[in-house]
Amino acid sequence: MVRQAGPARARPLWVVCALGLLAVSMIAGLLDGAADISPWQVVLQMADWLPFVHVDSGLAPVEQGLLFELRLPRVLVAAVVGGLLAMAGAGYQGVFRNPLADPYLLGAAAGAGLATTAAIVLLPSVAGSIPVAAFLGAVGGVFLAYTLGNTAGRAGGTATLVLAGVAVTSFLTAIQTFIQQFKVEELQRVYAWILGDVGGGWDQLWLVLPYAAVSSVLLLLHGRMLDVLSVGDEEAGSLGVRAARVRLTVLLAASLATAAAVAVSGLIGFVGIVIPHVVRRLAGGSYRIVLPLSMIGGAAFLVLGDLVARTVIAPAELPIGVVTMFVGAPFFVAVLRVTRRAAT
Amino acid sequence: MISAHGLSVRLGRREVLSGVDLDVRRGEWCAVIGPNGAGKSTLLKAVMGLVARRGEVVLGSRPAAALKPRERARLVAYAPQTPALPPDMTVFDYALLGRTPYIPYLGRESRHDRSVTESVLARLDLTELAMRRAGELSGGERQRVVLARALAQEAPVLLLDEPTTALDLGHQQQALELIDRLRRADGLTVVTTLHDLTVAGLYADRLLLLAEGRAAAAGEPAQVLTEDLVGRHFDARVKIEPGPDGRPVVHLVRGGP
User: What is the pLDDT of residue B157?
Assistant: First the structure.
C-alpha cells in the first residue's frame, strides 16, 4: 500500500517519546538532592500542587517548601533554558544552512557575555540590569556579525556570515576579558555567571518566561519557511520568498531565545548543536520536525545535565555549562566529521 | 509571453550582460546558447529578478517590476543549473515547495496544494519515489524531481538553467522529451540555457546566441547555427549540416582552430 503523502510533521510517536523523556527527567530532577525524599512522595506532592487536587504526600512542610521553592523552579528553569537553546540552535542552523551554527558561533552568546560582564562590573547596584544587558548584547552581537557578513560580500553567502560571527565572538570575548580583569574584585561573580547556573528560583523563571514564549512561538511558526530556505536563497527567491526578510526574522527570534537563556543562566554551550542534530538523525530533517522536537529534547537534556551537575561531586556542584561542554565538545567534532564527509 | 529590452547586469566591476533583448512568445521554446561565461545563466536570473538588473522585463502582460515576488512566482518557475536538494528532505516535500507562492507566509499547505503535487509526481512517474530522501536519488531522478517542483508551481513560464547537466545521453533525451511533452500539453513557454548546440537546435523553436554579455544573434535554429557565427563566437572549427529533419547538426572538425 502506498502511504498517504503529506507534508513533513513530527510523528506522534516521536512527540510522545520526547515528552516521556522530559517527564522522566523532570521527576528525576525533583528527586535528587541532599534531603531524603522518596520518588513516590514526590509524585504525590506534585499531584497535590495541581489545582483542585488534595493528596497527602506525607512530607513535612519543610520538605514541601524545599521541593517547591528550590527544586521545582530549578528543574523548570533548566527545562525552559534547554528548550530555548536547542531551538535557537536549530533556528540559526536553518538561517545559515549550516549544521554547526549555534548561539555560540554567531556572536550572540559572546555579545550577551560582554554586556552582562559590563553590567556586573559597571552597574553592580542596578537590580535587574543583567537580563536587559544580556538581551541587548546578544542582539548586538548577532547584528554585528550580520552586518559584517553582508559588507564582506554577499557572494560568500552563509560561510561569510559564520566567519564574521567567529570574528565578532573573538573580538567581544577579548573586550569582556579586559573588563573582567580590570575589576578583579568582581571576578568571582562574573565567573559564576559565565559557567552557567539554573538555581535562581521562581524569580529567574518569571524573568525568562515572556521572552521564551515570544521567541518559541515565532520560531515554531517559521518551520515551513526554513524548509523553503534550505534550497538556497536564489531558489527561495524564485518561489516568491523574500529570503533576506525570513532570515532576519528567524535570526531575531533565535537571538531573543539565546538572550533569554543566557540572561538567566549564563553561558551553557553546545545544547544548540547536540539536540537538533540528534532529532534530525532520528525523526527527520524538516524544520517542522526539528524545531518542536528540539524544544522538548533540549528541555529534557538540560534537566538531566543539571541533575548530573548537582550529583557528581555532591555536596559541591559543577557549573552546568561544564556538563554540557563535556558532552557537547566531542559531539561537535563528530558532527564536524560527518558534515565534512558529506561535503566531499 | 516574456520580453526583455536592454537587459544589463553588473556583477562587481564586470558587466556580465549588456543590452540584451529577449522575446519569447506563448508556447514557444527558446534556447539560450553561447560560450562559457557569455552570461547565459545571468540572463535567466535577470529575467527572474534574482540579480540586480537594468532594463525592462515584461512577464505576461505586466512589467516585472510591478509584480510582487509571490505574483511573479506564480507566472515564472525557475530551476538553477545545480539545484540544492536538501539530502534529508523527501521527494514529496521537495516538490511541495513549488506550492510556496500559493501558501500564506506562516500558513500551511492546503489539500489542494497536496493534490496538485501528487498529480505532478504521478505525471513524472515519481509516485514510487515520493517518500524517498532526496540524497538517495540518481542524477536522472534528481532532474525529474526538480522539474516536478517547478511544475507544482503551475506557472505558465519555465526558466531552466542547463536542464541536462550531468546527465548521460539517454537521460538527456528523456529530460528534454519530457519538457517538450509538458510544454505541448500545457502550452508552457520554456526558456532553457543549453550548452549542446545540436540539442539546442533540435528542441528549441528559437535560439539566442550570447557572446561576451551581448546578443550576437537570434532567430530560428538554421539562422543562428551557422559555421560563421558558431566558429567566430565559440572560437571553434565546426561543420554544420542539415540533419534528417532539416534542423542543423553541429560537428567539430579536428585540427582547429
Answer: 94
Check the CA dihedral B191-B195-B201-B203 and report its sign.
negative
Question: By CA distance, what is A234's nearest residue in B?
Answer: B50
DSSP for A90-101? HHHHHHHT-TT-
Residue A344 has pLDDT above 60, yes or no: no
Grid cell of A216 as nine digits: 518559541
Q: Is B93 in the A-facing interface, judged by CB distances under 8 Å?
A: yes
Q: Measure in Å the smallest separation between the Cα of B157 and chain A Cα atoms.
A: 12
> What rounded mean pLDDT belongs to chain A?
82
Determine whether the interchain pair A7/B93 forms a contact, defined as Cβ–Cβ distance below 8 Å.
yes
Residue A19 has pLDDT above 90, yes or no: yes
- Chain A positions touching chain B (beta carbons under 8 Å): 2-3, 5-8, 221-222, 224-225, 227-228, 230-232, 234-235, 237-242, 280, 284-286, 342
What is the average per-residue pLDDT within A87-108?
Answer: 84
Residues in chain A: 344
Q: Which of A268, A250, A277 is nearest to A334 (CA)?
A: A277
Q: Which residues pair with B242 in a beta bridge?
A: B248
At residue B223, the pLDDT reads 92
Q: Does B86 touch chain A (CB under 8 A)?
A: yes
| Chain B positions in Cβ-Cβ contact with residue A237 (cut-off 8 Å) | 48-50, 69
Question: Does the distance separating the beta carbons of A241 and B71 come in below 8 Å?
Answer: no
Homologous superfamily, domain B2-84+155-252: P-loop containing nucleotide triphosphate hydrolases (3.40.50.300)
Q: Is the pLDDT confidence value at A165 over 90?
A: no
d(CA A290, CA A286): 6
The pTM of the full predicted model, rounded to 2 decimals, is: 0.84
Q: Is the pLDDT of residue B31 over 60?
A: yes
Amino acid at A21: L
**B88 interaction partners in chain A (CB closer than 8 Å):** 280, 284-286
CATH number of A12-343: 1.10.3470.10
Query: Cβ of A231 and B97 within 8 Å?
Result: yes
pLDDT at residue A337 is higher than 80: no
The DSSP output letter for A183 is T
pLDDT for position A34: 58
The reply to whether residue B50 touches residue A238, judged by beta carbons under 8 angstroms, is yes
